[in-house]
Design brief:
The protein is mostly helical and 209 residues long. The chain has helices at residues 2-19, 24-44, 53-77, 85-104, 108-128, 136-157, 163-166, 168-193, 195-208. The longest helix is centred in the C-terminal third of the chain and has 26 residues, at 168-193. The protein is flat. The termini are far apart.
């Protein structure tokens, strides 16, 4: 019953976006947004007795999005044409949802999912503003220290360093170092297209390192 209730709520969100005449990518993003809401509800209801109705809903709200959200992200990537804002919203909702799961149900997997989903949201945001490809390396170099600082701040914020949370900083830092590598590789490639774009990207990367 709990699963049917949540699926019905997700279908209502999709139907509402369809009623508004939203493009396909926004209808799919509505599924991701519903998943994020379910994840938040799962955290809020996690102390409810499992045998109660709210406890059953909490369990379903925790499990169902872990299937629905990845599927919605895959589907939104298949939308034809060249949209970007809908995809950005879908990845942003996913990042928020996985972040909530990591907070309420400690798991480094959820942190990885939240961080890489945020990278996807930023990538589509750059696409939405039509940033020239040669400047993507600079964007990566600018974002890398943001994640590295966030990892350090996360470690200072966390009180519980039990094994699930112990890897949180490493998961965030991995994204930061991944962006550094991307900035270096893309920076050298950008030198072929736009010298200044490549030079700026590599200069910022050297500052980060």
């Amino acid at each position: 019953f709990a699963y049917l209730t949540l699926i019905g709520l997700a279908n209502t969100a999709v139907a509402f976006t369809s009623l508004l005449g939203a493009p396909l990518e926004w209808r799919i993003a509505a599924i991701t947004a519903s998943g994020a809401v379910m994840m938040a509800a799962a955290g809020g209801l996690k102390r409810r007795p499992p045998e109660s109705m709210l406890g059953e809903i909490a369990l379903a709200a925790r499990r169902l999005p872990q299937l629905a959200v990845p599927i919605s992200l895959f589907l939104v990537l298949l939308v034809p044409g060249n949209p970007a804002f809908g995809q950005m919203a879908a990845f942003l909702f996913a990042s928020i949802g996985y972040g909530l799961l990591a907070e309420y149900f400690p798991s480094v997997v959820f942190v990885h999912a939240a961080m890489w989903s945020s990278v996807g949201a930023i990538l589509f945001a750059l696409k939405a503003v039509a940033l020239p490809g040669e400047w993507y390396a600079t964007a990566a170099a600018v974002l890398a220290p943001v994640y590295l600082i966030a990892g350090r701040a996360l470690r200072q914020r966390l009180i519980d360093f039990a094994p699930p949370r112990r890897g949180y900083q490493g998961a965030v830092n991995l994204v930061g170092f991944g962006l550094v590598i991307v900035a270096i590789i893309a920076g050298f490639i950008s030198l072929i297209v736009d010298v200044w774009a490549g030079v700026i990207a590599l200069a910022l990367t050297s500052v980060v390192l």
